[in-house]
Every structure is written in structure tokens, then in C-alpha cells.
Prior knowledge:
The longest helix has 16 residues, at about 270-285. This protein has helices spanning about 1-10, 25-30, 60-65, 75-80, 135-140, 160, 195-200, 205-215, 240-250, 270-285, and strands at about 40, 50, 95-100, 105-110, 125-130. Helix 7 packs antiparallel against helix 9 and helix 8 crosses helix 10 (about 270-285). The strands form two sheets. A three-stranded antiparallel beta sheet has the order 3-4-5, with no helix packed on it. A two-stranded antiparallel ribbon has the order 1-2. The termini are far apart. About 30% of the residues lie in helices and about 10% in strands.
Amino acid sequence: MEYTLKRLLTHPDSYVADSGEFILGAEELAAGKTDELEGFKAVDDLNFTITLSAPYAAFLAILSTPGASILDEETTLAAGDRFGMDPKVTVGTGSFIIDEWRKGDDMTLAANKNCWAGAPGCDWVLMRFVYDAEAQRLMFEEGKLDILDLESMGDDAEYFIRGDIYQDKLVHGRRVGLSFIALNESIEPLNDVRVRRALMLGLDRNALLMNAYSGRGELENGIYPHGLIGYNEKLPAITYDPQAAKNLLSEAGYTDGFDLELDVDDENTYYCNEIMELAAEKKKK
Length: 285
């Protein structure tokens, strides 16, 4: 476990460093100031203690996520840069073993007959990666997909949701998740709370919900959405008030506005484009 925590905090390509950031000494280790993780202590071969730098109720839950999966130090180091990329040198303990992986195309998983939880009920699983919404729709209609997730399909989802053909096959459920824009508070002008509040007040979230999600969903007033532990129904509503936003920007010294650069990942391109278009329309007005 110690090796796993050190690796996720120090590996240059780690996407899960936040899984261990609350451990005492994590910041110093990540910064290269030490080779030890102060908050981790091995008691014996089967037990260890972890000390946090501050109270964090979600820490045990984080340790149970895939990002904190325990790695075997010997095989991981031997695999080097091939670990996680080459199935032949990537060791895991799950129900399936990666047999073949064609990046961006598909992945074939073979049953792990020696899995600690018992062998799975099938011999293999083929996972295809299809990112284009129209292609997903066609595959579903041609019987090549058993389940179609409509959440990220944008306008293409309307064909299934509003039409008459699939009404008896739709399954609805509350999504425990949140779409938001993260602001870097360490740079100007975002280090000014008035600017950040102006951005919040100047965004017509209801219009965004209608444009980007066709009204499917609900507006949240905090970082914890409905259905998630920590959700607070008593938070005040975030209103749309462009005039108040302008006043705050003027007060902060940005009467004529400022340029803002956003980093968009591939998975959220569609919705971010909707945000940009909506923002542009509001700016013209």
C-alpha cells in the first residue's frame, strides 16, 4: 500500500494524486522534498496506519476507488513505462484480464479463472470505444449495442427521449454527478472573489441547462449534487443577475471585462462548446 500511495503522489502521469493529498507529508513528497510519506506507517505485514494532515471524512471512501487500487511493487517497477499500457506486463486482481487493447478502438478482456472472487460467468468481453453520438445511435438501432447511454449524446438523445419508438424501453434515474467549470484561483483576475462571483452571476444556468442538456437535469447550488453524501438543501439559490455581475467586475477593476482561457477535455467538448456559445450571446447583449 505504501508503494501505491507514493506512486500516485509522485508519478508524472498520475491522474489520481488527489486520492492521497490529505495524507500527512503528501505535499512534501509530491514536491520532491522527501522520499518518505510521513503519514504512512507499516505496523506489520498485514496492517498499517495512515495519518491525515487534516480531518477528511471521505478518505476511506477514496481508498476504495479504482484510483487507489493496490499495485504490486515488483511487477510494476519491472514493467516500467509499459505498465498499464501493455497487457502482458500489467498485473491486476480483477475478474478479467486484458487480452488485447487497440487504443481508441476496442479492448478484449479474457476471464480470470483464478480470480479471488471466483471465475466470471463468461469467457471474454469485448469493449468497443465509440465516441461519436451519431455512430452510437446507428449501432444501437442496428442491434450492435444492447444499452445506449443517452446522457452524453447531446441533441441525438432527443430522438429516443421525445420520439414514440423507444418510450417503453427508456430507463430514467437521477444522475449523481455534477457538471461545472473549475477556476484557477491562484492567477489574476480569478484570485479576486468578486470576479469569480461575477462569473457565477453572469451565467444563465437555466438557459445552459436547456441548450446543453435539453432541460434534462436540475440546477445545483453547491458542489455536492442531489443524492450525494454532503448535499445541503438549505444552500441559497444561485441567481442569474447580469447587472450585479457587471457591478462586481467594475468594482474589481474590470469594467471592460477580461480574456479567459479554458482547457476543455475531449469528453466534455460538446457541453463546453454550448457554454461558450451561450456566453458569447450574452456578451453581445
